[in-house]
Q: What sequence folds into this?
């Protein structure tokens, strides 16, 4: 796991997931119901603060937010 | 066509290889959809389902969900769609209240139904189903019951809104007459099946044979993906809650989308700021928008087509009565909708509705049925509990909220929902609820709860704008920030819960202040 992955996993597990779902890098956060609409907004704000990236409305997509690995890839792309 | 039992096989006979359903992962032809439906029906028969039985359907948005609903009605059984996000105890209450033995579920929903006490659980996404011998639709009477929409009353006990084949088709014919559709159209399937808006996807679309484009739940959470799918799939017809229009305007990246394929956009179920509708219209150049209105008990009973973008300071009317529907505006305390009880023109009264889309009854609830139905002037009228009025200048109908939401502040009757719409038109906020702070022996006050505002939100400025725009008695006295959005099972903002939360926060804040000044 990369650092981004690990930090994201910790944040999502500790702060976002409400029902105790175990979150791995490829867990489908959306279909499993682990992350709701509010969770998406909180993740967005968190990665903006934590990694200093700007997330535009057009970036907040299912493709970018479906799994921890995908969010990490998105963040990685923006910070590189 | 006089019943819903054979819509899928009929379309399959006409155009077997045409596209019926575009799901997220695959596309279904009419022949495939009809076959899946007929095999689910076979599994239901094998589980002992008989004509007249209630069958639960607990599925996330997917093609199999459409097939399962058709499978149930094809047997003359009665489909009871269950919110797939419901916890097991809620599912169990619905199972008991509606006496359901068999439920159709799939991977994401097994956990919700397995502890709810059903006798049998049928898996809708099991490919083994395809090997079963397809069941043939039975012949039913148009007055036979087809589906039940459950809603929780104020006590939380589910009440069942029973529609027959006939009342469902009453809606289908109205919707197709007002919002025409051809086999070439592509219709967004957004609303969950336990929400009455889905009547359009489930029954109107297969009546014509247009293509359904499924928007699974994540598309409600991701407005930019929602608009991308609208563009990619060249969706022509869209019908959902106005909250989604608002989300598309605010977060849908509309500047970078081509929505020129959209022809009809229907919204209904809650009120929406006019500015949001106007903004959406500017990005959907070929779309005509329509506000459609009617409780699940009556289906759509009024509609208003927006020819031009509404100006920000107007409230969108609910318009005119739909074909084969009658509406009377009756003084709230009158027991029947006789003409002598009609409200004066321009005054708000309770809407009573008669027509071919009105439900059969509340399931096994004589007391409630006696309270809401009245036979008058040769019609059977349903008392909606919605407050409506006719604008004498335009002849158009307006909605003023639910009768039970009416409250009084300083002797003035105020409509919380109307105030919410007004406050939501203030720049920089997109969800506002208004609660009433009851004061023992003093004046009640309104509390505005702003839902997840931006970081630079200024409560003082918000209050002063509110005071400029609203009469003094309907302006909120204070504002609190609600840190979490909450939604109802059907995807609407959970206003009732959020209002309570706003009032609670205001009370907590006061208690803390009193404590601190001691």
A:
């Amino acid at each position: 796991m990369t650092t981004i992955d690990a930090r994201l996993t910790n944040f999502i597990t500790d702060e976002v997931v409400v029902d105790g779902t175990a979150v791995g890098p490829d867990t489908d956060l959306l279909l499993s119901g682990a992350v709701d609409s509010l969770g998406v907004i909180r993740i967005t704000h968190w990665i903006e603060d934590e990694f200093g990236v700007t997330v535009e409305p057009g970036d907040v997509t299912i493709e970018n937010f479906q799994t921890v690995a995908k969010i990490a890839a998105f963040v990685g792309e923006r910070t590189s | 066509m006089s019943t819903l039992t054979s819509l899928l096989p009929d379309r399959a006979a006409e155009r077997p290889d045409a596209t019926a359903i575009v799901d997220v992962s695959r596309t279904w032809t009419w022949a495939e959809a009809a076959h899946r439906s007929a095999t689910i029906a076979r599994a239901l028969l094998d589980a002992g389902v008989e004509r007249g039985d209630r069958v639960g359907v607990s599925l996330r948005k997917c093609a199999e969900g459409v097939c399962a609903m058709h499978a149930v009605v094809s047997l003359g059984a009665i489909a009871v769609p269950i919110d797939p996000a419901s916890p097991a105890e809620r599912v169990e209450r619905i199972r008991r209240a509606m006496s359901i033995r068999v439920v159709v579920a799939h991977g994401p929903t097994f956990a919700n139904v397995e502890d709810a006490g059903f006798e049998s659980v049928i898996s809708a996404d099991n490919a083994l189903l395809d090997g079963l011998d397809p069941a043939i639709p039975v012949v039913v009477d148009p007055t036979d019951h087809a589906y039940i929409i459950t809603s929780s009353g104020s006590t939380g006990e589910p009440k069942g809104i029973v529609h027959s084949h006939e009342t469902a088709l009453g809606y289908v014919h109205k919707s197709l007459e007002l919002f025409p559709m051809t086999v070439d159209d592509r219709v967004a399937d957004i609303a969950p099946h336990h929400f009455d808006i889905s009547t359009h996807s489930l029954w109107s679309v297969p009546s014509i044979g247009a293509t359904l484009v499924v928007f699974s739940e994540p598309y409600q959470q991701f407005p930019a993906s929602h608009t991308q799918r609208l563009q990619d799939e060249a969706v022509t017809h869209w019908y959902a809650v106005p909250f989604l229009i608002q989300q598309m305007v605010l977060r849908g990246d509309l500047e970078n989308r081509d929505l020129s394929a959209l022809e009809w956009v229907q919204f209904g179920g809650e009120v929406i700021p006019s500015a949001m509708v106007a903004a959406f219209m500017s990005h959907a150049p070929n779309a005509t928008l329509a506000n459609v209105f009617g409780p699940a008990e009556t289906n759509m009973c009024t509609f208003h087509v927006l020819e031009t973008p509404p100006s920000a300071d107007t409230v969108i009317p609910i318009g005119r009565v739909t074909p084969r529907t009658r509406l009377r505006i009756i003084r709230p305390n009158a027991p029947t909708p006789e003409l002598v009880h009609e409200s004066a023109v321009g005054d708000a009264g309770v809407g009573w509705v008669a027509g071919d889309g009105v439900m059969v009854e509340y399931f096994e609830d004589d007391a409630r049925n006696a309270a809401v139905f009245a036979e008058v002037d040769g019609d059977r009228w349903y008392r909606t509990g919605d407050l409506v009025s006719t604008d004498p200048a335009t002849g158009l109908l307006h909605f003023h909220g639910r009768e039970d939401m009416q409250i009084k502040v300083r002797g003035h009757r105020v409509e919380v929902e109307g105030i919410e719409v007004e406050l939501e038109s203030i720049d920089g906020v997109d969800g506002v609820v208004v609660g009433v702070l009851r004061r023992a022996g003093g004046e009640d006050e309104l509390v505005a709860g702003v839902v997840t505002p931006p970081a630079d939100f200024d409560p003082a400025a918000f209050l002063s704008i509110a005071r400029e725009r609203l009469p003094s008695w309907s302006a909120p006295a204070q504002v609190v920030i609600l840190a979490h959005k909450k939604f109802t099972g059907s995807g609407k903002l959970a206003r009732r819960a959020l209002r309570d939360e706003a009032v609670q926060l205001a009370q907590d804040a006061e208690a803390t202040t009193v404590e601190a000044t001691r």
About this structure: Chain B has 15 helices and 26 strands. The two ends of chain B are 74 Å apart (CA to CA). The mean pLDDT of chain B is 91. Residues 141 and 193 of chain B are 23 Å apart (CA to CA).
